[in-house]
Amino acid sequence: MPRPKIPRNICGHPADSCFKPNRIPMSQLEKVQLADDEFEALRLVDLLKMQQQEAAIEMGVSRQTLANILKSARFKVMDCLTQGKALIMHHEEEKEE
């Protein structure tokens, strides 16, 4: 049984819930889910240019955990960009509705 996921501090939210290739209906696209913590890690490190240690403290996780989250998030984004998949992002409030 895996360890329980510790809560992460998430401050940023995506401007939209989905990014997809032009001219292809969503029903025809493979979808990739970007988790809240993956979005936040990308926002802090790649957009706000924080060092990984600083971003890890901001999110309330270890630096190694942040590095693992970033690796997963960057793979998903590149998979969508290179393979023409839809990138789906929902934050917790939207999931409960």
Automatic annotation (TrEMBL):
Highest taxon of source: Bacteria
Residue ranges of the TM segments: none
PANTHER family to which the protein is assigned, alphabetical: PTHR37478, UPF0251 PROTEIN TK0562
UniProt family annotation: Belongs to the UPF0251 family.
Protein name (database record): UPF0251 protein C9J47_03870
Organism in which the protein naturally occurs: Photobacterium indicum
